[in-house]
Amino acid sequence: MVYYMHRVYSRNGIAIRLTNGRWFHITNNHPELMGYYYEVLETLKEPEAIYAGNSGEYIVINTL
Predict the structure, then answer these.
(1) What are the pLDDT digits (tens) for 11-28?
(2) pTM of the prediction?
(3) How far apart are CA 31 and CA 51, in angstroms?
């Protein structure tokens, strides 16, 4: 079962759900983000930059 923690909307209105599993994946690969949950949500909503990834995904960036 997937538990949704929060849902935010991208600049172009696409819903982004940050689940427990996805947050674990993020912090497992980037432990320096562990205390920045709400900042990550804000980055998803209003990134400073957006880059195309290698697998069709988008990479959003903000300076903390």
Answers:
(1) 889 999 999 999 999 999
(2) 0.80
(3) 22
Give dist(CA 47, CA 52) in Å, integer.
Answer: 13
Task: Give the start-to-end residue ranges of the domains of the chain.
Answer: 4-61
In order of 47, 51, 58, the CA distances from 55 in angstroms are 20, 12, 9
* Residue keyed to tokens 């923690």: 5
Q: What residues contact 58, with CB distance under 8 A and at least 6 apart?
A: 50, 51, 52
For 6-30, letters b (16+ CB in 10 Å) and e give: eebeeeeeeeeebeeeebeebbeee
Radius of gyration of the chain (CA): 12
